[in-house]
Design goal:
5 helices, binds the ligand O=C1O[C@H](COP(=O)(O)O)[C@@H](O)[C@H](O)[C@H]1O, Glc/Gal-6P_isomerase
């Protein structure tokens, strides 16, 4: 757990952690797989802009969850990351794995086909850049957010999807946070990743950050409590104020 003065310092620390994971993965396997959350995490991604020595050609970027909306919709997690970072760095466009836009022109009914298509696309990559173990993909790094209700990705408190283990990518059509139709990594896919990083910025995150960190794990009221393994926390002073 690392506590910094403000958001700018957290963004810088997030950039350093990501660059280190990327260097290690590229040295070991020749590619780096990172999956991003949406929401407030997006504003921290800009910390990677202008950094030297990043081998962007070998980065492959995914989304841990996505809202089934067109890419230019303000709710699109892909669209947000594009504006915050991805349009300014030379990652080949074919290595940005957004949901298939044509499947979500209308939000209603989009989650099922979007999830099936994303799941199939990821499974296709398991013969190249996405290694698997015990039938699960091993992403190098997940940059996670969490909601004030403790949700991560689009896995919400006491929702049946929390316990679903197959396929890798799940559709949700009744997200309590709008928009209702989304796709999400399953919890086993989250936990199979080599490293996960949570960020908590501002007073609004303080109470839930403290609850997650102090939880005994696997509390269905707090999906973030299920996250296991190599987990880093980067927080500003306000986000860490109730620890
Ligand atoms: O809807 C979502 O919410 C969570 C948390 O967002 P935040 O704005 O409260 O930080 C986010 O991690 C997830 O990716 C997103 O789709």
């Amino acid at each position: 757990m690392h506590i910094f003065q403000d958001q700018a310092e957290v963004a810088d620390a997030l950039a350093s952690l990501t660059m280190k994971a990327a260097e290690q993965a590229i040295e070991e396997r020749g590619s780096f797989t990172v999956a991003l959350a949406g929401g407030s995490l997006i504003k921290l991604l800009g910390g990677l802009k202008g950094k030297n020595g990043i081998d962007w050609d070998n980065w492959h970027v995914f989304w841990v969850d996505e809202r089934c909306v067109p890419h230019d919709d303000p709710e699109s997690n892909y669209g947000g990351a594009l504006q915050a970072l991805l349009s300014d760095v030379p990652i080949p466009a074919s290595q940005l794995y957004a949901i298939k836009e044509s499947l979500c022109q209308k939000n209603e009914g989009a989650a099922q086909p979007c999830a099936a298509e994303y799941d199939a696309r990821l499974k296709g990559l398991s013969r190249s850049i996405l290694p698997t173990k015990d039938g699960l993909p091993i992403f190098d790094l997940l940059l996670l957010g969490f909601g004030p209700d403790g949700h991560i990705c689009s896995l919400f408190p006491e929702h049946p999807l929390l316990k679903v283990t197959q396929p890798w990518i799940l559709p949700i059509s009744d997200s309590p946070k709008p928009p209702p139709e989304r796709i999400t990594f399953s919890m086993p896919v989250v936990n199979a990743a080599k490293k996960k990083c949570f960020t908590a910025i501002g007073e609004g995150k303080a109470e839930m950050a403290a609850t997650i960190i102090k939880s005994a794990g696997d509390d269905p009221k707090i999906p973030a409590s299920y996250v296991k393994g190599d987990v880093a926390w980067l927080m500003d002073a306000a986000g860490a104020s109730l620890l």
